[in-house]
Amino acid sequence: MSPYPEKQAGNRRSMACWTILHAAGRSSPGNLRKEKRSGVRGGDRGRSPTFHRVLPETGDPADTFLYLRWKKVPSGTVSIYVIVYIEHACIEAITNLNVLLNPITKRVSFMLKRSIAIGATGLLLVLAACSGSGTPDADNGRAPAQPEKKEPTTLYFYNVGANFDAEGYFEEKFGKAIKEKFPHITPVLIPTTSGALDKQIASGQPIDVIFGSVGLAYNSVFLNNMQYDIEPLVNKYKTDLSRFEPQTLEMIRQMSGGKLYALPFDTAASVIYYNKNLFDKFGVTYPKDGITWDELYNLSVKLTRKEGDVQYYGFTISPNHYFWRNQMSLNFVDPQTLQVSLTNDNVKSLMDNIARFYQIPGFNPDKAKMDSLTKMFFQDQVSAMWTPVAGLHVEKDLAPLNWDIVSYPTMNGFGPQPYPVFMFLNVGSKYKDDAYQVMDFLSTETFLTEKAKAATFIPALSSANIPKVFGQDAPLYKGRNVAAIPLKNMAKPSPQSKYYSAAGAQLTIALRGILYEGKDVNTALRNAEEAVKKAIEADKNK
By its UniProt entry, which Pfam families does this protein fall under (predicted)? Predict the structure, then answer.
């Protein structure tokens, strides 16, 4: 039951127009008088308008009352704070007000700008609801206005990577929250097992939102011309871009040529997994956060040895991501001139740094083993340390191990470059507004904080709260060094182009040439540079 007699059920009225306050005569707050219109609760007319708790528990707009107070400021103006429930679409009708919308409670707060003075001629502030009428519907004999009913919509999601494909994963991590927030939307995941993006397009499969990492976006979203500039929607729905980690936002803007083709979602972890049993077996001290590449190399030397017929390896790494996330922020391919730079001293230094781990006496992995580095660590348990560079492993992978993690090795004081996953709005989507609002919701701190607590994703947000709560609800990380996961002091992103990933892949081929074919570093890098140049020329001649 409503706490106010005039608001009993059956006597609710639609608040089409609210007269908030009227100031007349002079600027003294004592001369302000309040007016009761369309269900706004009044009071003793002789008092100054200091209204207090008036929002009911129902959250129904028809049951909403005004909360108002004034305070004197040095300039003689009056600051007025108003809290109401109101349709989001009506906000733009309000002038001279600062608007703050809480996305969870839908409670909107309006603060009158200090520059507005209460003068002798008085001031009338009117908040107009969608109808614009000042007469309550009930007084006109009309039925109360109903909320706009949205048509049921199915949105299709596609992840360029395969990490959403597990049975029930998408529904659990995304679907439930989307349907709760947007009851008219049914989210559907298109599994990668049904084919790559070009196959989806050819089959006529609708796609609305595409998840793609910085390393895969060019050869998927951009290659198929599916990108769409979301800047107008950012402005329309007042998305606060300052919530995103600045470097991830910089990356997508640079990739978009100054436009904005996507919102950042999460960023890949970079940690070193280590097998505590192997460290204990060989009497080697565990690695610590802040370890440098040189310190890591020294550990690897101690752990690379042969026991009986078993060869053990100190450290293995995913080479592609090592080059893509290089801590020197190298410009492999200039986005403007398409000049390829893979033979300079900095690239040589980058190559030497990783090659030395595979050249430790006794290492000598054959090509098959280098192509299955995860198997060496997880199944065979012959690698003491492993870093995927981009991502975290799940419980089923880690279950057989006595493991822990430390931070990615630093180079010149920097961690790796960010490696974000972005949410792209497909240019061919028929429901761009709905799709964008879902993207906006999935990138909010409220949604992503819960995912961070569960260690599901590392949000690409600037919030200082994320590292504090990361993994606190995740049983997998209980007793583990979870503080190593959130990225710190990331290197500046390398300039991105459609050929940046190709350059990284060619550097991996060069590394294999050095290790397996006996090539010297200069020859291997020269071959890599020529391969990228040929790819660029081939594209130009298409």
Answer: SBP_bac_1
Structure tokens at 264: 């950042």
Rounded-to-integer distance, Cα 341 and Cα 347, Å: 8
Mean pLDDT of 277-302: 98
Q: Is 85 helix (H, G, I), strand (E, B) or coil?
A: strand
Q: List Cβ<8 Å contacts ≥24 apart for 103-106.
A: 103/441, 103/444, 103/446, 104/446, 105/59, 106/59
Domain extent listing, the chain: 5-131, 153-266+422-475, 271-415+499-540
* 3 state DSSP class of 312: strand
Residue 447 has phi, psi (to 5 degrees) of -65, -45
Single-letter code of the amino acid located at 59: G
> 3-state secondary structure string, 260-294?
CCEEEEEECCCEEEEEHHHHHHCCCCCCCCCCEHH
- Would you say the CATH fold of 271-415+499-540 matches that of 153-266+422-475? yes
Secondary structure (3-state) at 178: helix
Residue 364's contacts (CB-CB under 8 Å, 6 or more residues apart) are none
Residues 6+ apart with CB under 8 A from 188: 154, 155, 156, 157
Sheet of 403-407: strand order equals 305-307, 310-317, 383-387, 271-275, 403-407
- Residues paired with residue 187 on neighbouring β-strands, in sequence order: 155
What are the structure tokens assigned to 162, written together? 């395969």
Helix (H, G, I), strand (E, B) or coil at 111: strand
| Calpha distance 182→175 (Å, rounded) | 10
Q: Which CATH superfamily is domain 153-266+422-475 in?
A: Periplasmic binding protein-like II (3.40.190.10)
- CB proximity list for 64: less than 8 A, separation 6 or greater: 15, 39, 55, 56, 84, 85
CA distance 160 to 191: 9
Instruction: List C-alpha distances in Å: 301 to 241, 357, 385.
Output: 46, 8, 12
| Helix (H) or strand (E) segment spanning residue 351 | helix 345-358
Start-to-end C-alpha separation, the chain: 72
How far is it, in rounded angstroms, from Cα 432 to Cα 237? 12
The DSSP 8-state label assigned to residue 150 in this structure reads P
Whole-angstrom distance, CA of residue 299 vs CA of residue 276: 13
**pLDDT, tens only, 99-147:** 444 444 444 444 433 333 333 333 333 333 333 434 444 445 555 555 6
Report the distance separating Cα 128 and Cα 100, nearest Å. Answer: 17
CATH topology of domain 271-415+499-540: D-Maltodextrin-Binding Protein; domain 2 (3.40.190)
